[in-house]
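ok, trying the design again with the full structure, not the truncated one.
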């Protein structure tokens, strides 16, 4: 099993960024994918979840309206799109496969997103 994320991104405030997470080694539609981020000096912050089977999503309240999760079953890839970026969105963004018991068993390698003018 592997989750491979896209590379580092640098954006200006107000811009958008889309991070990908390509899954391999298992049936993509059989497991939820969560997105979690970690800002410098901070703990992990749960952003939300997508069910690749039907595209159903759940967002942490903080991110509703500004974050969008999608999944492309033809390429086994999950995406997170963050709009209206601000400096506080500077963080490493991770995707993680959710186990039956709601823990994580596999993580992507992380994608650094830097928001700076």
């Amino acid at each position: 099993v592997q989750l491979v994320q896209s590379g580092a991104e640098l954006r200006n405030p107000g811009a958008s960024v889309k991070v990908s997470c390509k899954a391999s080694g298992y049936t993509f539609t059989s497991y939820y994918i969560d997105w979690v981020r970690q800002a410098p000096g901070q703990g992990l912050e749960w952003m939300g979840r997508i069910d690749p089977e039907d595209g159903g999503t759940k967002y942490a309240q903080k991110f509703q309206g500004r974050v969008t999760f999608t999944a492309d079953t033809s390429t086994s890839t999950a995406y997170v799109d963050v709009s209206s970026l601000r400096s506080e969105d500077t963080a490493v963004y991770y995707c993680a496969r959710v186990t039956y018991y709601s823990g994580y068993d596999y993580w992507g390698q992380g994608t650094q997103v830097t928001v700076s003018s």
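Keeping the full-length input from now on. Residues 9 and 17 are 8 Å apart (CA to CA).
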